Structure formats: C-alpha cells, structure tokens
Amino acid sequence: GRDYDMVHYGHSNQLRQAKAMGDYLIVGVHTDEEISKHKGPPVFTQAERYKMVRAIKWVDEIVEGAPYVTTLDTLDKYNSDFCVHGDDITLTVDGKDTYAEVKREGRYRECRRTQGVSTTDLVGRMLLMTKTHHSNIDNSDYQQHTDNFGKGPKGHSPWTGVSQFLQTSQKIIQFASGKEAQPGDTIIYVAGAFDLFHIGHVDFLETVYKQAERPYVIVGLHFDQEVNRYKGKNYPIMNIHERTLSVLACRYVSEVVIGAPYAVGKDLLDHFKVDLVCHGKTEVFPDRDTADPYAEPKKRGIFRTVDSGNGLTTDDIVQRIIKNRLLFEARNQKKEAKEIAVYEAMKSQAEGEQAGDSAQAAQ
C-alpha cells in the first residue's frame, strides 16, 4: 500500500522488484482522505493515482482505497502471501511502524529504494525551476520563498548532489520489455519530452495504443538540450536517463528511442518501418530551421492527431505542485529536517530577532 502521489521511476522500480519476488502483484493505493490524514493533501486525485498505478506494466491489480496500515486481514482478503515495501520505514501518525504486524508473521519482504530520486527531490527541482522564471507567478512573497528554498548553506541548492542517478545498461534491460515487433503489428511512433511522466502522458499513450488492433508503440525521447530549446526555463526536470525508465515502465510502450531526432524524418520512419505517427492536441514546436517536424509523415499520409481528452501538461503539474508548496514544505519538514533548518535560519535572518526563537526551535 502506498499513496503513489507523483508516481516516478523509483516507485516503478519498487513495483518491478516486488513483481519479481512473486507471480501476481496487487498494489494498494490510498484515498485522498487517507493521505491527507497522514501526509497532507495529495497533488493528484485518487482517480488519477489509480489510473497511473494501473498503467505500470508490472502491476496485475490494484486495490482502490487501501488501508494505510497493511494488516494480516488485508493480506488474507486478497489471498496475498506477503507484502513488499521499500527499505525506508513508514510510521503512522502516532509513530508506530505500519508494518509491525505482518513482519511478526514473516509476511513482509523488502525491496531496495532507487538511488537518485524521491518525491521530495523532484519537488525541490520544481521549486528551483521557478527561481528565476516566475512564468505567471509574480508576487514577491513567492520570489522570497523560492530564493530561500533554492539555496543551501554555500549558496547553491540543497538538491545539488541529491539526484545522482547513474544509468546503466542493466537498468534499461530490467525496465525494457525486450519484445520485438511481430508481423501484423501496427508500428506507431510518437515523440516528445515525456518529462515528469504523468497521467496526461498515460492517457495519451493509451489513446495511441488503441489506434490499432495489435499496436507496437515506439516512443522517441528528445535529449535534454533539445527539450530545453523548445520548452525553455529549467526544463526538462527529469534528465534523459530518468525519462527513459519512466516511459519504459508504462504498459502501453514497447520501445524507446533514447535521444530521438526532433524532425521525424525518412531514416527513422524507414528504420522502424513505422505505420503511423501520432501527436496529441498539444502545440508542435517548429524545428530549428522553422520546419514542421512532422512534414515527412504528413507527406506519407501516416500522421494522425489524437485526442486523449486529457489536456494535462508537465507545466500544469509544476503549477499544481507549487500551489501546494506550503503543504509540501510541511511534508518535507518531517523528511528533510536538516535542509529545512537551513531554510528556517535564512528566513529568520530576514525577519529579524523576533523570529530568532523559531530558528532555535528548528534546530
């Protein structure tokens, strides 16, 4: 049972490990109410979170509204032999280990946390992102906040060095399906940043997947530099390696091109024997030479615009998270006491002696 608010490749990797320990993986996902009680309001609604977890290819079944504490009763109810959790401890509101009971009965297994990513870290990257670009947020209090949040004791971000994600061929192999396209498959190609892989992406890929009887979906991921060229700001928030794993974890995806050319040209279409190229309702940015990146598939008559009915973008998510920033801070405060102590100290400096007391308390 997890809240799976902002599902990232770290969670997917936990689920992959869990699935490898058994035959059938059931994932309990908590309601908004449960999460609010224990952690503060989630960024995504329970409907979004259920859908997101269902889209991860190692998941066989989800339990909606799973209890926060996994009991033996819960395991028995779903005929589960054991439950799996990351090797970070989870405590209830009153400070008890939520897994004490199942551990006693020997029905608890552990999987390793993925180095390089956590929700806290991603939120940090987003808050840093708006440090110099307000996009549409213009008040000085917000600016003050991000300035404080974005600097560590030596003047650079507390998150530098947090995200040490090292890609290896082994990791890619573990995430990849390894299935080749079969005769009779419709090979569908889509391209983009797929940054902070989210429910908007899932809905889009599911729609693409449904364009054919036997779809083989190839996702072309643009390199970081390319994404930054057309998205600006500090995008992408996740680097190419992180984005590769995030997309590979999705059950609608068969293959990923790591660092796809921006223009979908002859070579790519011929090499993969592409039958159909899809793009969502979002804006298509022109290529460096102002050309339409989809000119070739359009010329071949294999280009299709699909509407997933979900207009959610990575930008929207960053906005949602910033809106929730104070709640996140409260959440991060518990998790990242040290970083916050620094943040508090800087805030109190700015606010004069009256705040001095709270800085002491923060220590």
TrEMBL record:
GO molecular function: ethanolamine-phosphate cytidylyltransferase activity
E.C. no: 2.7.7.14
Alphabetical list of Gene3D superfamilies matching this protein: HUPs
Bilayer-crossing regions: none
Domain of life from the UniProt record: Eukaryota
Top-rank EC class of the record's enzyme: transferase
InterPro entries: CCT, Cyt_trans-like, Ect1/PCYT2, Rossmann-like_a/b/a_fold
Keywords recorded for this protein, A-Z: Lipid biosynthesis, Lipid metabolism, Nucleotidyltransferase, Phospholipid biosynthesis, Phospholipid metabolism, Transferase
GO biological processes: phosphatidylethanolamine biosynthetic process
Record GO cellular component, one term: cytoplasm
Pathway: Lipid metabolism; Phospholipid metabolism; phosphatidylethanolamine biosynthesis; phosphatidylethanolamine from ethanolamine: step 2/3
Positions of the Cytidyltransferase-like domain: 4-123, 190-281
Family: Belongs to the cytidylyltransferase family.
Protein's name in the database: ethanolamine-phosphate cytidylyltransferase
Gene name per UniProt: LOC118940023
